[in-house]
Amino acid sequence: MLSFLAFIGVSIIVIITPGPDTATTIRSALLAGRTGGIWTAAGIAVGQTIWALATSVGLAALVVASAPLFIAIKYLGAAYLIYLGISALREALWPGEQGSGISVESHSHSRVSPSMAFRQGLISDLGNPKMAVFFTSLLPQFAPIGGSTFATLLALGIVFAGMTFLWLAVYAAAIHKMRYALQRPTVRRLVEGMTGMVLIALGLRIATEQR
Question: How many other C-beta atoms lie within 10 A of the C-beta of residue 13?
Fold first, then answer.
């Protein structure tokens, strides 16, 4: 029990620390409201569950040990974050379609379906090989000696993913609560631009930092 509580405490600290998952969720919530943010959070949670499963069967350790594979995933994930950041900056600088008569809000919402929001969260998380490093270093510390390692690691990973989903869903709800202020074109473009720069910065950090 004490070990599990310690795991919860460590997980909370990690989850509430802003990172690519938080930025991706905020962007989806800006473009598609609470629904978009929640679907992105769901995609991230599924991605984390996949990493947990990979950790349980030893595949994540292979990713960490294989430099070419690790680097390939790292660069693909970084490129995807930079792509999302550039898209956000483009939306901030040139919102909507010129002369189309479509409002900024309705145009933005039409561009992010639930399936797209889910896919963005999933790809963002699976494209971050640091999750493999994190899970392979964290989860085994809380697996009981002599117990079922596979079941324990997978269960801990699912708990972590569930906590992540709940936290990011709170972000999505908070953005939804501020929707009236964010509907102002100037405010919306400013927040969209800042989110884009954060995503690009995170992508560059992932691409350049060492293991």
Answer: 8
Which residues have C-beta within 8 Å of that of residue 133, sequence separation ≥ 6? Answer: 64, 211
Q: For residues 125 and 12, what is the distance between their CA atoms, to the nearest angstrom?
A: 18
Minimum mean pLDDT among 44-58, 80-94, 165-179, 180-194: which range? Answer: 180-194
Over range 82-87, report the average pLDDT.
88
Q: Is pTM, for the whole model, over 0.85? A: no
Residue 182's CB: how many other CB atoms inside 10 A?
A: 19
Q: How many CB atoms lie within 10 A of CB 174?
A: 13
**pLDDT exceeds cutoff 90 at 46:** yes
The phi and psi torsions of 102 (rounded to 5 degrees) equal -95, 130
| Distance separating alpha carbons of residues 48 and 113, to the nearest angstrom | 22
127-137 residue pLDDT tens: 888 888 888 88
Q: Which 3 state secondary structure label does DSSP give 184?
A: coil
Encode burial over 183-201: b for 16+ CB neighbours within 10 A, e otherwise: eeeeebbebbbebbebbbe
Q: List Cα–Cα distances, 201 to 43, 147, 208, in angstroms.
A: 22, 42, 11
Per the CB < 8 A criterion, the answer to whether 173 and 69 are in contact is no
